[in-house]
Amino acid sequence: MIKIENLTFFYSDAEKPALKDVNLEIEDGEFVLITGPSGGGKSSLCRCFNGLIPHFYGGKLAGRVEVQGLDTKNCSPRELATRVGMIFQDPESQLVTMDAEREIAFGLENLGFSRTLITKRIEESLDTLSISHLRHRTLHDLSGGEKQKVAIASVLALHPEILVLDEPTSELDPNSAEEVLSMLERLNDELGITVILVEHRLDRVVQHIDRLVVLHRGRVVADGRAGDVFIQNYEELTEIGTGIPPIIKLAHELRKTGINMNGIPLTVKEGRISLRNALQKAYTRKLQDDEIGKNCVKPVIEVKKLWYAYPEGATALKDVNLRIGEGELAAVMGRNASGKTTLVKHFNGLLKPAKGKVLVDGIDTREATVAQLARAVGFVFQNPNDHLFADTVEKEIALTLENLGFESREIRVRVDKMLERFNLKEYRKQYPRSLSVGEKQRVALASVIVAEPKVLVLDEPTRGMDHKLKRELMKFLQEYTAQGNTVILVTHDVEIVAELAGRVVLLSEGKIMVDGHKRDVLSRSLLFSPQINRLVQAFQKYGIPDNILTVDELVRVVR
Amino acid sequence: MLSFRYKDKGTALHKLSPFCKLAWLVSIFILALIFDHPIYLLLLFLSTLPLVFAARVWREWLSFMRFAFYLSLAIVLINALVSQEGSHILWQASFRLPVLGAPLVALEAIVFGLGMVVRLLAIISAFVVLTFTIHPDDIMLAMIKLKLPYRSVLVTSLSTRFIPTLIDDVERISDVQRSRGLELDKGRILQRIGSRMAIIIPLLSNSLDRTVQVAEAMESRAFGSGGKRTFYRELKLSKLDTPALISGFSALALGIFMRCGGWGNYQYYPTLERIRLDGFETFMLSLLVLILCLIVPLSLLKERIELD
């Protein structure tokens, strides 16, 4: 059992507390989900569970944290390691050895266990997570999901009673994330291990948890059964920017229009049942879409018979043909290693076609350098930390223009415009790396947008972003396309695509499988469909269009 | 791109105990340092080649040698220009520098440079064999067995563990910065250094963040804070490894004996000594090379016996 009483914590150089007056009791065997906007204190709370606060991270601590009867203040992380296992966000930086077997042994060796016991525990943990086939593989070669499973196994080997996972799936693709999450359910269900999980995306786990805790600005703002929290604290949660699963949002929206239902559905299945009355009526309203023209608009990106293979071997792109026009917002989707990133890296010349041609704004990419193409194509990568290196925010944004050879007066004007546009004025003289995640993201985006590229490519921009940041980004992208620019989005996030994109290009094994309007690509499919579409598929016979993708659309039809 | 990482290629050499290979490396290393004679050094270098082939690491070896080649060029060049001794003057400048006089290039200086290069190549080659035939974690274990402090060994092994990660980071960051219009190979050297900073700064900052995360993860798994540590893996030194181990040490012993007997000396300055090897010396030298190469057949023998 974990007991937290009046916990307040300041990091050593901070003025604001990371955690403020937190009171929390977690029973053995509970599955607790902790969520809330970035910077709300989720990671700090996790660090309190296994004594990293205050033993690893110094600072001012008031109140008490008791884990299985031990006060963490008087107990080192070493002593706590056999009681609380901790898994972190980035799989790459929590693995310290070269292969899975040694990785699992690491903690056991630290505790001085005998070789026989270590051997036994390794077998056990490999089997529990069904990863014995990975035992001798080099960890660096594993996929993100496999690495994360090895990390869990290495913690599980210490036989903890409590598992704490700090956003374990935010670096993973949906399939691996799904696997890791169901693994956690099993550990909780069958072995009775207490699981404390930090997650942004609730729709995948909400049905399995016993309890939902929402943190905002270091305080617990909601705590209870998921169903109750979403009824009682719905307004507050939306306001602070917590991600709410579409089905729950839908239920609330329908309530507002006067439709009654018992309780709040948490899953698509529950939704089908509790919304049955509301949706089983003859609806005649259809959706009206603005046509996306494949041929009528002037193309800015033209890919003709593109083939590409990496030097190590595997062919990454096979005979890809694609035209993307001005003002289009296209999403490139597909499994991991399906060639998405390889394809978009051709758009600004980072990769050059092995066979075939890529024309950007009429320029053959083989005849231009990346720098020359950078004026036409802006590229935003997932991690803003890879972007930032200047001393001040102002210089960071100006640098792109300097690279591209703009005049200094023009640079000043444009940088000011960007600082204004992205709300960064007060930070202009600050060191970009010391900003918060959201602010860093804005600086990175500003440093690309400042060149006013006709085409903006974003590679997995929403990975690990909280709901509020996602909203901000989506709003910006909509505005940017409205100005006649083209946005190309590489993503796994179906819900984002459902709301944002016009067109979806689906890749598989280096080939374009489907290319069309999001409504055609995303609806009526088994896995790629957003939650709302999976819901309406059941009510198609009552006249509800089966190509509805978002809450707003459904509400419009039903109202 | 070639990844400079250990890969278990499953050859007999890979299966040999790390201690044998360490003994062999130490022999080559020390012998390369105590001998001056270019023929001796060349033979030391050549005797690493059978291992390179037996372990099937020639591709990795070649790329290291390519790097070593540039280094060698620099060594020969600098030595020829800086060392102003030697009696066979190949070239003398027509101008005079204060204090130093007119710079000259002598045959002896070039040959001396070449001798140093061969010495360097022998050592690099031996290290390549070692790095690509022993699992990095096993090198760590061997070091610990040899009573080196655990923490320093762990730090070394962690840094090898993160090299591939670092390479990924560099690739990603340079993509990011190039997309922002950065041209890495444009302009004068100063400008080039400047543009490299756009990659180095994010790389260093990311690595610093990563260090904290790694430390945090290690601490959460009971690392440090006292208590005895055990080791899951055992470095086995079976009876079948003993011959290879002995061959490594006997090469060293023989070499030292020869050196004490006055062999393996060579005078580069002021005039190159004539190379003379009498029958007995040639015999002893061949014996030395033979013993150094013996590790290959011994490892094959071990594999064969283990299979039976």
Describe the structure.
- The complex is a heterodimer of chains A (559) and B (308).
- Chain A is an alpha/beta fold.
- In chain A, the strands form 4 sheets. Chain A has a 6-stranded mixed β-sheet, sandwiched between helices. A 6-stranded mixed β-sheet of chain A has the order 16-17-18-13-19-20. A 4-stranded antiparallel β-sheet of chain A has the order 2-1-4-5.
- In chain A, strand 14 (355-360) and strand 15 (363-364) form a beta hairpin.
- In chain A, helix 10 runs parallel beside helix 22 (551-558).
- The radius of gyration of chain A is 25 Å and the shape is globular.
- The mean pLDDT of chain A is 90.
- With 308 residues, chain B is mainly alpha-helical.
- Chain B folds into 2 domains: 12-135 and 242-307, no CATH class; 150-220, no CATH class.
- Chain B has a two-stranded antiparallel ribbon.
- Chain B is flat and about 65 Å long.
- The interface between A and B is large, with 71 and 52 residues.
